[in-house]
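>> Question from a student workshop board

For tomorrow's exercise we were told to take the sequence and the ligand below, predict the bound structure, and bring the output to class. My setup keeps failing. Could a helper post the expected result so I can at least see what it should look like? The ligand is guanosine-5',3'-tetraphosphate.
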Amino acid sequence: MSIQWFPGHMAKARREVTEALKLVDVVIEIVDARLPVSSRNPMMAEVTQNKPIVIVLGKADMADDGMTALFRDQWKKNLHVPVVAVDNLHGQGMNILIEAAKQATADKFAKMAKKGIRRKTIRAMVVGIPNVGKSTMINRLAKRSAAKTGDKPGVTKQQQWIKVGQELELLDTPGILWPKFDDRDVALRLAWSGAIKSTLLESQELALELLSWLNKQYPQALQNRYQFSSMTMTSAEMLEEIGAKRVAKKAQDVIDVERAAELVLRDVQTGLLGRITFDELTMLDSFGDQA
Ligand code: G4P
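>> Workshop helper replied:
Here is what the output should look like for this input. Compare the format with yours to find the bug.
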């Protein structure tokens, strides 16, 4: 899953996606609904140029419903593009997505029709950072179960078109771009969600920041899961207590804080604290998505 992105990779990925984009009418940009801002490619607007775009909030089943609705409405209003929440695992939202692709390309198709060009199917490609559910969504739309594409930056060669119903054709390999990982807030959230491996940040540091953030944003979920002995603990005390209660001791009486940290991250990533959205609406500013 984890790709090491170097400037060379980024340039190549961008070039490949730009090439593939020439073949399609609409870009389906998928982000993770739990971190819609942090899981966007920072150059998406430049990469897609003026292509019609549909934004998909994937993994909506794991995100906070209220926040998903707020992000969706804000982006619809600010970016003037269709925004659709989907759950790829259960196939929720797929028909709405196909409708959104039609809506996004309606103008273009009307203009083509005026010039006498008639095409029945809309051509689309899926683009997004690693691990947001691109392959799962393509497979879901194609009604197939296998075909993992592997995480290579850009787009793999020899693409094929997959028919999705009567009106949509999809490139079978997604475009893979990079997240904005030079921003600490973004990197934290990518790591909390499991989208990037926590090699850059130690598990302990990540878990401490996560506990402190959860304590502000989702205190009830935190308390329900870990049943802390006090409501006024610091994140370090919380981690110690989780370690003491749930993880085997390292040596006699030595709490394994590292494993406690990994447990917290895993709990959150697998949804054991419930549906959580890591990004906050104020983060829209950092992408200029507010304008
Ligand atoms: P990518 O192509 O963008 O890299 O992502 P991919 O489809 O491989 O999906 C990454 C992980 O996210 C997979 O889990 C996949 O099952 C999960 N996923 C994708 N869409 C959704 C969704 O809408 N909801 C939920 N809850 N999960 C989703 P994995 O554990 O990495 O792989 P696997 O064990 O499922 O094979």
